[in-house]
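[agent] plan:
  1. take the single chain provided in the ticket
  2. run structure prediction with default settings
  3. attach C-alpha cells to the ticket
  4. add a short note for the reviewer (M.T.)
[agent] executing step 1
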Amino acid sequence: MSILKRLFGPREKREREGTAPEPRLTLKEMLIAQIPPWDRVPRAFIQLVVEVLDGSGLLDVFIFHSVKEGLVARYAIICEGGFSASVIRAQISQILCETGNRALPALAKLMAKGERGDKGVKALMLCCDCFEVAIAFERTQVAGYIGLAHAYATIGRRDKSHEYAERGMSLVAEFRADPLWMNARGESRFFPLDADDQMERQLRIYLEH
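[agent] step 2 finished; step 3 output follows
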C-alpha cells in the first residue's frame, strides 16, 4: 500500500462515507513529519535541510529526487557517528553531484535521438536540479558548476553553459587567492596539487565551445 493510502485511506471509501478528502501533505510536510523513507535520518538532518533550502525554490526538488533516486539511505550513512552541519552539507553536495553526473550520459543519449519532449525534460531536470541543490548546500562546489555547464551544453544552450562555466572560473580564482586553500592542496585525494588547474581545464572546455 502506498504512503498516501496509508495516510488518507482509499478514496472510494471516503466517497462512500460522504466525507470530504483531507488535504494531502506537501513534500515539505512529509519531510518534517519524517514519513518513510525520511525516518532513516536524524531530526538534525531534517532541520539542516529545511534551514538551507526553505524559501529557495529547491526544497521540493531535493525531496523528490532524493526519494526517487534512493539517496536517503546514503544520507543516513553520512549521519552516523556524530553530526557536524558543515561536514554534512559538503557530503550532501557531493552525493548530489555524483547523482547529477550519473544522469548526464542518459541526457546526452536522449538529445542525440532528438528526444526533447517529456523524457528529455525529465533528464535535464534531474541533472540540473541535483547540481543546483549541490551548490546550495556547498557554495564552493565547483563540480556543480561544471555539471551545469555540461548539461546546458548538451542541450545546445551555450549561453547558460558559458554562464555556469564563468561562475565556476570565479570560484577557482577565489581558491587561488586563498592561502589556506592553496596550502591544503596535496593533503588528501580531494585536493591534489593541481586541483585548481584541473577545474580550470574542465571549465574552459565549455567557454571555448
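[agent] step 4 note for reviewer: Residues 32-138 form one domain.
[agent] ticket updated
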